[in-house]
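Please go through this chain and its backbone structure tokens and walk me through the local backbone shapes. Keep your notes short.
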Amino acid sequence: MSIPFPIFIQQLVMHTSAWGMDELLGLIILYIAFNLSDIIFIYIGYIRAIPECNGGHNHKSWCME
């Protein structure tokens, strides 16, 4: 079961204005907090997709032999 977006965002706006975070800095903090998990999963997937060279022991050629 998920929470409808308008209800979620209404509560978020109410809390951020009560905490004094309804300016640009507060929006930046909220944006980072909500998107950090997605960014971490994308970055981990990217790093895991890079093939290792000779078991990870040959870093000078980057598998371009």
About this structure: DSSP finds two helices and no strands in the chain. Residues 9 and 63 are 48 Å apart (CA to CA).
